[in-house]
């Protein structure tokens, strides 16, 4: 079993903000033991299909928040369906 298949393994849960909406979403929540390595995968279309599609459309994205945690935390945050509420870019005080 590799690291990404072990749901109890500690790592980092991260929130990505896209520069524009794609379909109905502007955020992606993921988990990685090595965030820099995972971002390299995302940027080279070896990560999620969602971010591969963003790459194909020329949509820029960046990590805007990180939490220490495991895949259980990733699932909890994804199940909330309101990633924009966690995003510091979308929730700037004007």
Please give a quick description of this structure.
It comes from Spirosoma pollinicola. With 94 residues, this protein is of the alpha+beta class.
Describe what this molecule looks like in 3D:
This protein is α+β, with helices and mostly antiparallel strands and 94 residues long. It has one domain (3-83). Helix content is 29%, strand content 31%. The protein has a three-stranded antiparallel sheet. A hairpin with a 2-residue loop joins strand 1 and strand 2 (25-32). The protein is globular and about 35 Å long. Keywords: Endonuclease, Hydrolase, Nuclease. InterPro entries: GIY-YIG_endonuc_sf. GO terms for molecular function: endonuclease activity. It comes from Spirosoma pollinicola.
Return Rg in Å: 13 Å
- Strand proportion, as a percent range, falls in 25-35%
Helicity range of the residues? 25-40%
Unreliable residue stretches: none
């Amino acid at each position: 079993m590799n690291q990404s298949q072990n749901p109890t393994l500690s790592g980092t849960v991260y929130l990505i903000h896209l520069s524009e909406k794609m379909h109905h979403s502007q955020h992606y929540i993921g988990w990685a033991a090595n965030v820099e390595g995972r971002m390299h995968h995302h940027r080279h279309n070896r990560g999620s299909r969602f971010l591969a599609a963003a790459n194909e459309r020329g949509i820029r994205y960046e990590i805007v928040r990180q939490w220490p945690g495991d895949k259980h935390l990733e699932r909890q945050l994804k199940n909330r369906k309101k990633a924009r509420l966690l995003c510091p870019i979308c929730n700037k005080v004007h």
